[in-house]
Structures are given as structure tokens and as C-alpha cells.
Amino acid sequence: MEQALAGIKILDLTHHVAGPYATRLLAGYGAEVIKIEPPGTGDPTRLWGPFPGDEPHPEKSGFFLVLNTGKKSVTLNLKTKTGVRIFEELARTADAVVENFSPGVMAAWGLGWHELHELNPKLSMVSISNFGQDGPYRDYKANELMAFAMGGMMSTTGDPDREPVKNFGHAAEYMAGLKASSAAMTVIYGATAHGGGQHVDLSIQEEMVASLESSGPIAFNYGYDAVRSGSYSRAAMAIYPCKDGHMMFWCLDRNIPALFRGMGSPELIDDPRFSTAAARQENDDILNALIISWCAERTKKEIYEIGIQEQVPVGYMAMPDELLEWPPLRDKGFWQEVEHPFAGTLSYPGGPSLMSEAPYVVSRAPLLGEHNEEVLCGRLGYTNLQLSQLRALGII
Amino acid sequence: MTPLPLQGVRVADLTMAWAGPHGTQQLADMGAEVIKIEGPNNHDLIRAIVFGGLSATDVGHPYNKSVYFNEFSRNKLGLCLNLADPEGRELFLRFVAICDVVVENYRADVMDKLNLTYEVLKQVKSDIIVVTQPAFSKTGSERNLVGYGPSIEAAAGMQGLSGYRDGGPQKTGFTYCDALAGLGLANVLMLALLYRQRTGKGIYAEGSMRDTTLGVIGETFMEWQMNRRYPPRLGNRHAWMAPHGCYPCKPLPPEEGRPIHRARGSSGEKSTDRWVTIAVGSDDQWRSLCEAMGMAELVEDGRFADAVSRYEHQDELDDIVAAWTREHGDYELMHLLQARGVPAGAVLTPLAISQDPHLEARDVFEVVEHPDFGPNKVTRPSARLSESPAHVRRPAPCFGEHNDYVLGDLLGLSGDEIQALEEKGIISSVPKRYGVGTL
Of B57, B172, B221, B303, whose CB is crowded by the most CB atoms within 10 A? Predict the structure, then answer.
């Protein structure tokens, strides 16, 4: 059984979250991903943790490990001419370069799109940045907080009478990383179909701007803004406390009869207070109170089971430990156990795809510079003596 | 001129609502011919989300005037065909024979009941790619669990980890999971297309919305396994940076307030609140922030002298920063701090986004002329290509707009035959049950 991207070669100049997530997916699908890291320190996420027992170690960062499975690591100092030359040698046979340096950095090294395109016309390049490769905010500094705030979704997240709040973690960066992974596959597809690589300029902010459901299009076309509505949109479209935690209900009008059946009160389907959307709107408080007291008597699991049985759109408010044990995820092999010489054996998540003919495969994240010899000697013909020279010069 | 990367790829798109169409939009934007298929009795439910309500637009064709639908279905064509009718199903199979991809996000049993499984589709086109986007899973115990973005993102851990420090789980502002899952679907579609390009073989694939969303909290699974804990709710705070938050700014004067909408219509209210995000990750940035605030003495203040002290005293720190930001505008603070190298960003509302100078300079919006809606402002394809710049080539399709193109030009039916299909109700250019039981 062969993986979908077998034979595709990616040069990975990414760090932090968005870029590494993009190339991690490509590696999981079977592409060869050579991650270029600065000698000595490597990707900054090697310092981010979480670490087992909270003891920092560059090969034990949970953040780095989960974002870099399946890649090879080559250390290369691109601030040296020799480092750039070695990179160019690798670029001659690669399908795509993925990078997320600040705009202008690659060009300053002589590795901008025009240079790379001339070097290898079949090569594609995907550049991920906070605000894009040009425009007035190009050089503005940002992390996930700014990306989320300036992409628009934050203004509608949180309670109406409080400050906007970001999503957990690195939601905007991951989103852009997922997009970048598809963009890389798209231009690689196009390079084969039509002959010739392309450069893709991806802005994390713009990916969020393109993700604003109805609130974006309404503002763009009618000039009206959406507001924050917390975790309550209307009765049965809200988060409800239950016996041992919370459940999310998201019942459209069409799901209301199933909800009432699930609550064991089918008579409510024809109750004039709730039988039409307009009536439910008028009696929203009453319906909400009914759901509150029904949930209070039940556990998450009980409500979830009823949801499956009666086809009620409920969301089990799951925490990471519950998800690691979630039987349906285990049954379909979503988690893959992988051993790592420093971090030990851990379960890693799969990818967005389930393709039995061409599976997503997790293999461990690389140690810093682990593949220097394999790639430089095995692929490019450097001798071991030259390798030690490069090491002494601080190039690898 | 280099063709768009996916030129020559044809997609039969059965997806509805947001997550599915957002996925196929990615392919349409990159040059694929995506034909959106709706039924005479089953229009895409978001055609019923019309600003001002259905009655406000009952002049003309309201189902073609949903800007929500029109944003995420631009660059696509539209076919209306009843797949539940034997003749409609036969026509669909004839169409599949000239497609590269069939993609759907129906409830798990729908394609089975229509007898349009991968096995069946493969018989009319041996290398067909079939991709399904279940909420959770097409097989196993969660097969019948219905899900939409907000309930799926709860089940994927995103809501339980999100929220204010002193609050409970937080639903995302409409709705992270759908947008992400749309990109996840595009990811699976591209993967399948590359697989076929390389091997010549078709494939069946699933792109689960829940599984896609799980990917973005990957580090928490590591943390649980390493230390048997997961991150506390941090709100806008950071694991080690301080200050790191969202601070109130001077409100807009009432006359400059932003008109707001609720329940798909103007509420007559205006909002005037403004917010700025600030993140300090180094001593240099801290010094710059103090100087910008006109409080250089804080640099020497023992409570805030180094990163660890600042993190410990961030309640006091947040009060100091907020007292300063309250006196200024959001953009003013962003530009002032960025000029000094401090990461800062205004919290842009959708309306602010539509007027932002940077996004304007980047040509993020394009206006297409929609036959029923008129000038329609949509986002430009977000992947900027160097050799074949992608644009919005056509507005979203009106309901059944391309019936003649698909059935006549592509499948070779005569005008009379198409007319007969219309009379039998197998095709239509008007939804038969518009807005009924959809939302």
C-alpha cells in the first residue's frame, strides 16, 4: 500500500505553528519533508514545551514533537554562503519549498521566488506570513493573539458585555497551516498538469477574513456588524451544564422534533408554544428552562447516547484525556503510538483524511540535525570529512 | 499565460451549508469547474439566510440573494437535479462519468439510500474520486450522530479549552470548526487528486469535521500524556508572555457607531466598543511599551523588572495598560506600538475589515456582478499565485442556473428533453419548498 504523496519532496523552512503544521500533514501523507533548522537551537518550539515533568529538553517538547512528526531534520545556517549553496542544491530536485519567515527574509538570502524559480522551474514555493508579502502591515509584529484579533473572528467571540476573547491555543495559525498544506498540494498538482511551479503568498489574517460565515458577507455587502453572543444563541443552540460537565446543543429548526423525542417529551412537538420557529422565539425562556432542567439530571454520556439514538445534534464537551480514550477514534485508528528515543512512546493524532487505500502515517519527529549525514552525504555527495568541516564552520 | 492549477478538473459538488461549500470553494478558486448540485425540493439551506429576512426580499428571487451563500459558492456553477427520481439519478450517473470528483456532506445514510455509493459511482467512472465529509464518522457508532460546526467543535475539545479565565467553555464566534473543516475537506480533495495524478487510480476518502478540528489542539494531547494535565482556560493570556491581552479603547462617538444586525436583520442599534490586543515577549518590547505609555519609570519597577515578575504581577499590569488604552483609539494604539516594535493589533470587526487600509492595499475584496443580487462584494481567493493570479471569475450560481449547460452542452440533451425534465419536476430553476424546514 503506497501513500498518496509518495515520491514528493518538500523543503521545509518553517518554524512555530502554521508552517510546521502544513508540512507535518504532507509528511503524514507520505511526502519526504526535509526540515531545515538553524544549527544549535533549531525550531523555537523545541523550547516551548510541554515537557515531561516540566524539565526542558530540546528533544522532548510536546509542541515540537506533535508538529513535526514524519520529517527529517537537517541543520543549515542560511546566513552563510555555503548554507545557501547547499539549500540550492536541495532545491534543484524538490517539488516545493514551504516557508514562514518574515516577508523579505528569503529574498535577503538570495532565496526569493525569482531566484528559486530560475534555479528549478518545476519547483513551487508557499510563503506563510501574518499579513502577507506586501501591504502596509507587512512588517507588523504579531503572534496568534494579533492574528486572531485582526482576522475578525475574535470580535464575535465572547460575551456581549466583556472583552472579545481568542480561541484556545493557536487556532488562526493552525487554520493557515491547514490551508498552506492544501495550497502546496494544489501548486504541485498544477506543476505536473500544466508544467511549472508557482509561488503562493498566504496571509494568516486573510485566511481568517475568508472564514467569517455570514457575518463577513453581511458586513461587506450591507454595512452591518455582527455582535458577540457568548455561548448562547437561543434555546437549544447553546452550551448547557449537566451533571458532570457541559454539553453543546446545536438544534436547527429541523432538529427540534428530534430534540423533543430525545428529551422524552414528544408531546412538545405539537405544543403551540414550540411548534413553529416564531412560537419558539416567543417562548425561548421557557424552552431554555426545560432544557436546563433536563440536562441537570443527566450526565454528558447519557445525553450523548440519546443524541446518537434520536439524531439530535449534541456535542459532547470533550477534554483531551477523554479524546485520547474515545472509542470511535481508537476504533478507526486515529491515534498512532510512536516511540521516540528521548520522549518515549506517545499517541499522536492522525490527519484530516481517512483513506484506507493511502493512509496517513505518523512516524516520530526528528532529532535536531539527525539527517545531516543522510541528506548531505547520501543525497548531495558530501564526504564525512566535509561534513565535519561544515560543522566546525557553524554551517550545519 | 499559465492556467490555474486545477483547470481541467471537474467536481460534482453535493455539499450543503458552510463547511462543505467552503471546501469546494477552495477548488473552484484554484480553477476547478465545480458544479453545485441541489434538488428541486432541497436547496442549500443557507440560501434561506437572507439579510433582512425572507419577506424583505420577496421581490425577485430571494434564494439567489443570500450573501452568505454567494460568498462561499462564487466561482461555482449550479445544477438543480432530483437525485431521488430514477431519471434524475440516471442523469447524475451520466454526469459523474465526465467528472473527476464527487463530494458530499449529507447525513450518513443519504448516499446509501440513493444507491450512489462509491461502488456504484466507480462503475460509471473507474477512476472517480469520491470524498465524503461526515460530522464525525461515516462508519462505527457515531455514524448517525448529526453535527454542525458548534456541536462538533465541542466534541473536538476546542470549546472545553477555550473561554475566559473565570468562565466556562466558550463557543467560538461563528464558527471556527466549520471554516477549518472546509479547509480540511479541501485538503482531502487535493490529496485524492494528487494520488490519482500519480497512480491513475480513483479513491474513496473521508474528511471528518471532528477529526480535522482535533488536529489544532495537538499539543494538549502531548501535555496530557506527559504530565496528566491540560492547559487551564487562559482567555487572552499567554503561557509565559505578559502583558498579553485584549484591552479596552476609547469608544467611538455615538454618531460614528457601527450599525449592528441581530437575527438576520438590522436591529437599529449601533456598537461603539473598540479593543486592542497587545503582547510583550521581551524586555525590549516592555521598555518600548512603557515609553509609549509615557511611564518609563515602570521599567525600573521591581514588580515588572523581568519577564517572570511581569508574569506574576500581570493583574496589576493589565490594570495599568488598560488605564492607558482607554484614552486612545484602537488603530491609533496599534500603529503607535507597532512603530516601536511592540506586537499590537486592533480587534477588527467584520465591518472594520471591509474598510481596513491594509486589506484594501492587498485587494482582498472583489466585486462581481450577480444577476439577481447586483454588485456582490466577496473575498478574493486567499492563495495568491505568482504565475496564474486567481480571482473571482464568476458570481455564485443562481438556483439551477446552469441546468442547460450541464444537461445540454455537457450531456447532449436537446432543448425539448430538458423542457420535459422541467415539466416532470426533475429539474427546476425555482426551489419548490423555499425556506421550509431548513433552519
Answer: B172
